[in-house]
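Budget justification aside, the reviewers requested a transparent look at the raw inputs and outputs of the sequence design task funded under Objective 1. We therefore reproduce one unedited record. The lines immediately below are the structure tokens for a 76-residue chain.
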């Protein structure tokens, strides 16, 4: 299992739409708006890095998304 957090910068005024759209993607545990540098944060749980990569590309490809940053959880 791979856990990650994807931070999303949206085009102006579209953060609610982006959070709603992302909630419907398989592997997204929760997505919510945030204040600060990033507009939306999404918690992700998927089976492997390949599925995570596909999910990241899907989110980054949404028309209302300007940029993303993915933080992958590492167990030490």
């Amino acid at each position: 299992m791979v856990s990650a957090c994807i931070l999303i910068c949206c085009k102006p005024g579209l953060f609610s739409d982006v959070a709603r759209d992302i909630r419907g993607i398989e592997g997204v545990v929760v997505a919510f708006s945030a204040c600060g540098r990033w507009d939306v944060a999404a918690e992700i749980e998927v089976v492997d890095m390949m599925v995570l990569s596909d999910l990241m590309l899907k989110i980054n490809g949404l028309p209302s998304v300007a940029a993303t940053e993915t933080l992958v959880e590492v167990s030490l």
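The chain has two helices and four strands. Strands lie at 2-10, 28-33, 40-46, 65-72. Computational costs for records of this kind are itemized in the attached budget.
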